[in-house]
Amino acid sequence: MTRILLALVLLLSAACAHAAVRIKDIADIKGLRENQIVGYGLVIGLNGTGDTLRNAPFTEQSLQSMLENMGINVRNETTSTNNPPRPTTLRTRNVAAVMVTADLTPSIGPGERMDVTVSSLGDATSLLGGTLVMTSLRAADGAVYAVAQGAITVAGYSVGGQAQNVSQGTPTAGRIPNGALIEREVQGSLHEMEFLVLQLKNPDFVTATRILDAINRFAGGRYRAQIAFERDYRTIVLSKPRHIGPVRFLAEIGELTVEPDTPARVVINERTGTVVIGRDVRISTVAVTHGNLSVRVTEMPVVSQPAPFSRGQTVVVPQTVVEANEAGSQVAILSGVDLQRLVRGLNQIGLKPSGIIAILQAIKTAGALQADVIVQ
């Protein structure tokens, strides 16, 4: 298992060493980003799997407010002309309070539709078969940008009885395909931008320089001008030629390929035993050995029986057997000129992921690992 894991890391790193990617896959256009919108609503039509109104008072208040907006008064009832009105208690289990979330894509216009995610807010057990009532979706500025409504698609289910429950997925969350109707367009467009700014998803000085050189080489032959200027290691400013539109200009720039540079980094996840070693990781010459010490403690109590006609008592005498075993290990010299030698050296020792993690952390402590170690 260890050799398969390390071989996979080696193959992925070797493949990335000579792989060029498109600029649009490693950089975004500043100002063209998604905006998160959220709303609070009610789901109706559930088959007895909705919120318990006694445990979720906000669901009852929302239901009462919705019915009042439709001209139905359910907050109080009058028993007689002499008695004061008293509150009405709702006992339905077919309604659930939910939060509706979505990502508003850039340049989307009024009248278009988008998907939304619906998640239960109360103690509902399932949203299967429910329908979301018209819900306003607001952004961080408080303005309504979309309105969501429709039948909910739930992938999970939960079925059970008094002695056993069977569930798969999450039945308290679902999606509504094309369930939101856009009511307002997000301000800002490409035509209003005087300069176009590329923002790297993984900022790096070398990657920014390679993108800058690739764009200027293309622009020198295509537009007869230098159009890219670096601002810092994260952003590159583009001066759009006047005789071309911004959409075509960004399409041509985005298809250019560069080889991004990655930092020397080792990522360790001790919970899952995952070790990811970057391509540029270097290790100074060190000698490494790793021994596995296993200790087994076995309890074998013995019953002490007194002799016949004696006044002794039968007692249990504890007896513990401790066995210690340390498997033999080899000493390997790791001279990590490149990733291939590092993987070969670790394979010589024959370690499990937990052993690899311990060795890498010890090499980092010794100052021989020339990379950043990130423990998740």
UniProtKB/TrEMBL annotation:
A single GO cellular-component term from the record reads: bacterial-type flagellum basal body, distal rod, P ring
Keywords associated with the record = Bacterial flagellum, Cell projection, Cilium, Flagellum, Periplasm, Signal
Q: Which GO terms describe its molecular function?
A: structural molecule activity
Encoded by which gene? flgI
NCBIfam families membership? PRK05303.1, PRK12789.1
Q: How does it assemble?
A: The basal body constitutes a major portion of the flagellar organelle and consists of four rings (L,P,S, and M) mounted on a central rod.
Q: Subcellular location, in the record's words?
A: Bacterial flagellum basal body
Q: Which organism is it from?
A: Bradyrhizobium amphicarpaeae
Record PANTHER family: FLAGELLAR P-RING PERIPLASMIC PROTEIN FLGI (PTHR30381), FLAGELLAR P-RING PROTEIN (PTHR30381:SF0)
**Descriptive protein name:** Flagellar P-ring protein
GO process annotations (BP): bacterial-type flagellum-dependent cell motility
